[in-house]
Amino acid sequence: MKRKGILFIISAPSGSGKTTLINKLIDSLGGLSRSISMTTRPPRSGERDGMEYIFMEKDEFLRRKKKDEFLEWAKVFEEYYGTPKKYIKHIVEKGQDAILNIDVQGAMKIKRLKMRSVYIFVAPPSMGMLKERLVGRSTDSKREISKRLKVAKEELAHFSKYDYVVVNNMLESALESLRSIVIAERCRIRRK
Ligand code: 5GP
């Protein structure tokens, strides 16, 4: 029987270093594909359409939402983000595992779909460290940073709904934890 891929759902407050972690995870383990979300948020400097996200106007996003093109979608920081159904289907049917870097609302929507999925929460070592990282990457305005910190606090309260929590203190050890989770889940016999 052909293996169907697993969905690895990774949520983390903005600025917790999850993008770097996910990129390293994909580079270090075979058979993992990153889901590319669609969003109405404008690209940050260095972001390219079709790489980090597929960027689009709100009208276009809402048209796709109406056509039920998203596996899940959410409004985060006043912008829409959604996971394209077609893309995920393509990955898992090829037997690849998919990594979905999505927020808590989106993760809980996928839970309701009863798909074969594993939920991982990446937590920053502390709120102070999170603030430092958000300020340090200097891609967001002061107002944007305080909004992101407020949402981070709310998101942290949901970590117990996940299967695993990885504290991103040292990149290498967080990466090792993530790799171990993926490897163990691939060997799992029984699934919930
Ligand atoms: P950022 O704008 O910093 O790239 O992402 C903001 C938040 O949106 C992050 O928590 C990220 O995980 C989440 N996000 C990105 N893509 C999606 C998506 O397709 N669905 C949902 N629900 N959240 C997403």
Can you put this structure into words, describing what you see?
By secondary structure, the protein is α/β, with parallel strands linked by helices. The chain has one domain (7-187): Rossmann fold (3-Layer(aba) Sandwich). It is built from seven helices and nine strands. Strands 2-7-1-8-9 form a five-stranded parallel β-sheet, sandwiched between helices. Helix 5 packs antiparallel against helix 6. The chain starts with 6 loop residues before the first strand and ends in a 5-residue tail after the last helix. The mean pLDDT is 91.
Give me some keywords for this one.
four-stranded mixed β-sheet, 21% strand, 9 strands, five-stranded parallel β-sheet, alpha/beta, globular, 192 residues
Instruction: Figure out the total of helices.
Output: 7
Structural class of the secondary elements? alpha/beta
Average pLDDT metric: 91
Helical coverage, percent range? 40-55%
The unreliable regions are none
Largest sheet: 5 strands, parallel
The CATH homologous superfamily is named: P-loop containing nucleotide triphosphate hydrolases
How large is the radius of gyration?
Answer: 16 Å
SSE succession? EHEEEHEEHEHEHHEH
CATH architecture: 3-Layer(aba) Sandwich
Strand arrangement within the widest β-sheet reads: 2-7-1-8-9
Strand coverage percent: 15-25%
CATH-derived topology: Rossmann fold
Q: Any idea how many domains?
A: 1
The CATH class: Alpha Beta
Shape type: globular
Distance between the termini: 20 Å
Name every ligand kind in the structure.
guanosine-5'-monophosphate
Number of strands: 9
